[in-house]
Structure to design on (489 residues):
């Protein structure tokens, strides 16, 4: 494959993909499988944020933490895992998971699926036009016969706080790629990145303080009991959680980061991590050349076409469209969008029916997510609050996971909770949340229940194995049945 570039190099493709993270790679693979010539443009490492600075390295840091926590709850293993974690081994394994921040294997995969690669920064230069500035200073001008797909993802959103630039704060990238354990770490935020990184670095030896603005608790977008159980466990592990704490300014003095809080208090730490949300990477994509506003999220239809652009040639897939900021959802969107692009390029009608072959219905109805803390949190579909806001009539069914026989086998003193939301008009499950050790492996079954819209009467026939934690499904269904015994009007 010819990857050379020259000044005034012009190339024509059916599909141009900007961004080679998991989303962009999946779009490119699907359009190439449809017979469309495809090029992918990437300015950093192929594999994107997830592979090198998010999902993969964070879970490599968290896995030994959670495995040790599980083992300590099992009689007969406590003494065997009583000591501290081998920090060097954990960090070495993390480095291996991210291939030491080298992307040779990803390049080989692109070759195997016959997708061209141009390294450099790509910007729109008018309809169906992309200009790529390469590392050697040349420019490659690309034209798309059919589609340009923006798959550039998001970056950390850091608040505008006095002194922040001089402090050089951690974001999720630094938190997942650090080569040493800070003695004292402040984590600003209370969402998924904040709780996962607090879990990891506390277990690796940091004295962690969480500064959470407001009093909504941790994991505010999930069921409230999830945040409470995670907060309880973090405090028991030694994390100092301060709610209603806002950072007013920061400064670095004699090696310390000194954070001044809005209430006048101060905190001195070695590093400060801002886990305060994500922003779309659209500021330097040339959106202004097609009449769009740089730096904004890109609104799309259910096949990921940008709704503000005529003729349907521009797609925005993955985090950049703000539908569901999760790697697996971006890959899901990519499969739908890639197949839709292939169909439309052949002059076929895209299948835009609900749960159709080309629409990302699950972005609305059934987004699954696991938070890899101790305890784990796994959720899919609606929360109680979301159902209420949407005007859905739901019945909340709760069950204490500690009463499931499988939980007794899993751990001594198991603590957890399960919640199922039943659509009372249709008799189907529309949301599930599990909190407890090992519940991440329950999530796919919950996702299938929500996506399939299986009636509760049918779910009775899905028999869980004994003794496993999945028996909680039976207990949830029994709890609902006991409230609505047969024959009661």
């Amino acid at each position: 494959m010819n990857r050379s570039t020259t000044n005034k190099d012009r190339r024509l493709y059916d599909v141009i993909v900007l961004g080679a993270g998991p989303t962009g790679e999946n779009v490119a693979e699907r359009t190439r499988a449809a017979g469309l010539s495809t090029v992918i443009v990437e300015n950093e490492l192929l594999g994107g944020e997830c592979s090198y600075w998010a999902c993969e390295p964070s879970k490599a840091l968290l896995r030994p933490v959670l495995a040790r926590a599980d083992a300590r709850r099992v009689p007969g293993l406590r003494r065997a895992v009583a000591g501290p974690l081998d920090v060097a081994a954990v960090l070495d394994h993390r480095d291996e998971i991210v291939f030491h921040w080298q992307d040779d294997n990803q390049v080989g995969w692109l070759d195997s699926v016959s997708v061209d690669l141009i390294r450099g920064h790509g910007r729109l230069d008018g309809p169906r036009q992309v200009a790529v500035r390469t590392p050697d200073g040349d420019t490659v001008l690309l034209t798309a016969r059919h589609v340009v797909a923006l798959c550039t993802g998001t970056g950390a959103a850091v608040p505008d706080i006095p002194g922040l630039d001089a402090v050089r704060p951690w974001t999720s990238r630094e938190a997942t790629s650090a080569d040493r354990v800070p003695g004292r770490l402040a984590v600003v935020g209370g969402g998924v990145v904040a709780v996962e990184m607090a879990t990891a670095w506390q277990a690796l030896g940091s004295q962690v303080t969480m500064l959470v603005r407001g009093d909504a608790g941790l994991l505010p977008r999930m069921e409230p009991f999830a945040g409470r159980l995670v907060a309880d466990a973090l405090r028991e592990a030694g994390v100092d959680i301060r709610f209603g704490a806002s950072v007013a300014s920061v400064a670095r003095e004699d090696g310390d980061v000194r954070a001044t809080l809005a209430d006048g208090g101060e905190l001195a730490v070695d590093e400060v991590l801002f886990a305060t949300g994500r922003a779309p990477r659209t500021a330097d994509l040339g959106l202004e050349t097609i009449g769009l506003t740089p730096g904004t999220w890109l609104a799309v239809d259910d096949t990921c076409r940008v709704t503000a652009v005529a003729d349907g040639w521009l797609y925005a897939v993955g985090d950049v469209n703000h539908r569901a900021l999760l790697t697996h959802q971006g890959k899901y969107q990519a499969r739908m969008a890639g197949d839709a692009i292939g169909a439309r390029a052949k002059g076929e009608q895209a299948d835009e029916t609900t749960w159709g072959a080309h629409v990302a219905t699950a972005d609305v109805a059934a987004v699954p997510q696991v938070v890899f803390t101790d305890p784990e949190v796994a959720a899919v579909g609606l929360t109680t609050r979301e159902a209420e806001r949407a005007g859905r009539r739901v019945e909340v069914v709760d069950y204490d996971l500690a009463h499931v026989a499988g939980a007794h086998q899993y751990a001594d003193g198991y603590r957890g909770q399960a919640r199922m939301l039943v659509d009372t008009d249709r008799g189907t499950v529309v949301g599930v949340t599990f909190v407890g050790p090992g519940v991440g492996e329950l999530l796919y079954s919950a996702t299938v229940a929500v996506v399939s819209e299986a009636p509760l009467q049918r779910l009775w026939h899905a028999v869980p194995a004994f003794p496993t934690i999945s028996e909680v499904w039976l207990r949830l269904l029994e709890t609902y049945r006991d409230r609505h015994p047969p024959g009661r009007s």
